Amino acid sequence: MVKNISILGSTGSIGTQTLDVIREIGGINVCAVTANNNIELLEKQIREFKPDIAAVMDCEKAEILKERTKDCKTDILSGMDGIIAAAVYDKSDTVLTSVVGNIGILPTFEAIKAGKDIALANKETLVSAGELIMNAVNKYGVKIYPVDSEHSAIFQCLQGNSENKIRRILLTASGGPFRGRNAEELKNVKASDALKHPNWNMGKKVTIDSASLMNKGLEVIEAKWLFGVDLDHIQVVVQPKSIIHSMVEFKDGAVMAQLGTPDMRLPIQYALYYPERRYLDGERLDFHKLKEITFEDPDMDTFLGLPMAMDAARKGGSMPTVFNAANELAVKKFLQEKIGFLDIYDIIAQSMERHTVIRNPELEEILAVEDETYKWIESRW
Ligand code: MN3
Q: How far, in Å, from the CA of 13 to the mean position of ligand 1?
């Protein structure tokens, strides 16, 4: 049976790799694609995959694209309404959410309400609105297939085992490009230094998040919601070569791990074709060359992303929303070289400090808290 899919963020790192996987394996019809503003690439994708809908967040760019694709049957839509139309499109049964940041919340929420299964590559949605999203997932009876490599690994380890047999989730981390450095050495690092990730080839935001260990913090919260495990039962383990993608310790003491070369196409393939495993071309693990896999504890005194995420998650309610929104804007400012690397932590800590938690926030409250957090940060940095 051919699956129909909408890809939100088809021109980004995960989006393009998803199209690579579909091109290689086949059996999936891409019926909607969306982009922020990269219409050059989106046009190529329209001509190759012939989706029914293509939406561009930037309205002016959407107009240009419409002109350029006059000869195609694809409907060109624009703005958040266009992205949501792609997310709830009748024909699709699965929505891959590979947009970056909390812009993913609204379309993901609408897709769930429309009964679509979600291939989740947008972790910020679960961090910012985890309770709301998981309640909707249960209410509308849809499934979430994790695309994030760690969560895909956990999901793979859980096959044949129910979540109530989990004792601990062992979430692995590479430690990022600044592993081993102290705060003094991090003061003057630039975005270009952070963008040299040792193992994974990723988008800019997740690469900076990986350098600050904010990414691992976001992933702890993502794991908590996806697998229903409380924070005391999630341990972060640094495994610098990213060979083990994560592990699950069960109640009887058995530990299951998923290993592989660091290649995002594998978790993408698993989420798209689950429960099947399709042939994927690519490098395989060679244990003759590998020899050893080493482990370390994360440096939580230097890289505050992790302890701050734990703190935000424990406070709960709207606090993770503030944590996520503050990080998002701080990363943007760091990429623009308006602030230093350690200011990212400062901005998040101060934003959380001044926030009064709202319990069980509704969607409108979450969006308002984000907005308010942005405005406060903009007025100070
Ligand atoms: Mn990850």
A: 13
